[in-house]
Amino acid sequence: MTLATIDLIILGSFLALVTVMGVVLSRLASQGIGSYFLGGRRIPWWLLGGSTATSNFDMAGTMIIVAVVFSLGYKGFLVELRGGVGLSLAILVVFLGKWLRRSRVMTPAEWMRLRFGTDKQGRTAHAVSAGANLVLSLGMIVYFAAGAGAFLSAYLPFDPLTCAAVLVIVGLVYTLLSGLYGVVFTDIIQMAIVIFGALFITVEAFVTVPGLDLPSGFFDLSLDPIATDGELGAGLLALDEGRWSTIFQFFGLFVAMWFLRSLLEGMGGVGGYTDQRFFAARNEREGSLIAFQAMVLSFFRWAMVAGLVVLGYAVVQNGGEYAELISNNPEQVLPVVIGEMLPAGVRGLVLAGLVAAALSTFDSTLNAGASYVVRDIYQPYIRPNASERQLVVVSRWATVGLCVAGVSLTALVPNINTIWGIVTMGIGAGLFVPLVLRWYWPRYNGYGFAAGTAGGLFAGLLTNAVLGWPVIISFPTIIGIALFASVAGSLMTDPTPDHVLLRFARQINPAGFWRRYNERLVAEGTLTREEDDRRVSEKLSDMLAVVFTIPFQIGLLITAMSFVFRDWPTFGLFSSIMVVSGIALYFLWYRNLRSEAECNEEEARLDAEEAAMESADQASR
């Protein structure tokens, strides 16, 4: 497929624009690593929310989601509960986003010092977390490069690796220069382009639907197994017969497993660049609003997915070489539809939007990954007294090094679905249990976290990347090994010191088995009884709100799809679910958010406490 001159001009202009933005914002990022990695915690929530949405709207992921929905209809949505739906946002909206912002740290690894202290167990957890997050960042960079290269090579006269290299260089330049400032502000430009493309494709598809004959079972949302010898799902079978045939045979079990995976991810924290957005929020109220905006903006992604699927079936009904191509390999639906079904000019804008989405995932991962190198390895262990200017220089070198390492591994990846499976159900699954236990179980200590993370990560890479076990076996194996290692590592070693746990309970107000620590805070006079009652009420309200946030998100996304498909019974049902759940969320979640004044008061209190602790440490030394 070839691009018109206007398409190439639009695509080139976009790449030039984001590069210029990086240069313009480089001065802001040079003020220190707080500015480079967190934007000085001065970026408004609506910019961070748009950036979060864009970074989750990646090109490779969209190719996979379109392929699965094209092959399975609504059941493809259920498959994408494995990660593509982003169901973890439902929990981040209600309480985890607030908890992350209350941590007042820069990286997920630095968070370990708050939870486990600064003694040997805290340092162990910190080091293991930094290593695990670096591995995850490398996996995401490989995923980006593989997907971007495969996508662009369909239009440009270059091989996938060359296409990936061009995008990597552009993303590297503006991320290198401007840090999170450049990432966020270019993400907003990218989101505007993405929304335009989504709206155009949605309208085109909506008009096209009446003339289509979609496969039998396309609109079926049940959990019954899918027939492997019929039209529905045939493309996925051709792409990877052994893996998908297993899923078809045990579909309901797989959906339950994917749903559990997403809940664990949400309850523990997504990690990586997503957590970074919450660390960068101005206060905890804005942390919750960031997640809500990202969740609502995902409406456009799923409307676009439905539109691309419809146009893909139009290509199939028209016949020809591309019809056979996408029938045998559904991962090609996205590039074929854009190349064949969109007019010149619009094609360039949609391509720019998808490239923008890919760059957003890449730049976010790269910036967050560099923060682990600098904040979690270089500064604490190599040069503790480095100046802010020196740290910014090292941050830029770390950005380059991480980029080169990730792209170098791309040649080892057979297809983007494989690397997506390794990242989400392999590396990611290995981190779920340790990340969940840290919030809710006080007896969990730094050694348990290190053991659980190491065990889960090893099991995830072994079962997925080396042995190639089916997910129905590998996922429970990974979870079981991580859980055993976490519990055994904690119970066989000394607990985290009480003063660390008391400070964590006071600052975060987590749910779970923390009641006795809250009672001690009241007994010591650190909390009043009225404050404690308010905190208990807040947690109960949050737990109840989650019951409505999940159906709100699912209702929102299926409403988008069913509208494009003109499936009015499904549209009526899920739009009603969305409206009812949204009203409940207003009363249970939004009205209970702390006001700006309350947030500022809490921030001032914590600033004073940290200053007092630092003075005491200096005096003791």
Describe the structure using short key phrases.
621 residues, Sodium/glucose cotransporter, 27 helices, globular
Describe the protein's architecture and organization.
The protein is an all-alpha fold and 621 residues long. The protein has two domains: 5-25 and 44-496, Sodium/glucose cotransporter (Up-down Bundle), CATH 1.20.1730; 597-621. It has helices at residues 5-24, 26-29, 33-38, 45-56, 59-72, 74-79, 88-103, 108-116, 120-152, 160-208, 234-239, 241-249, 251-268, 272-279, 284-318, 321-328, 333-341, 346-382, 388-408, 416-440, 446-466, 471-491, 498-508, 515-524, 529-565, 568-588, 596-620. α4 (45-56) packs parallel to α15 (284-318). It is globular. It starts with a helix and ends with a helix. The mean pLDDT is 82.
Can you tell me the CATH class of the largest domain?
Answer: Mainly Alpha
Poorly predicted residue ranges: none
What is the CATH architecture assignment of the largest domain? Up-down Bundle
Portion of residues within helices: over 70%
Supply the helix-strand structural class.
mainly alpha
DSSP strand tally = 0
Global outline? globular
Characterize the main sheet. Answer: none
Distance between the ends: 68 Å
- Rg, rounded, reads 24 Å
- What multimeric state do the chains show? single chain
How much beta, percentage-wise?
A: under 5%
DSSP helical segment count: 27
Overall mean pLDDT: 82
Query: SSE string, helix = H, strand = E?
Result: HHHHHHHHHHHHHHHHHHHHHHHHHHH
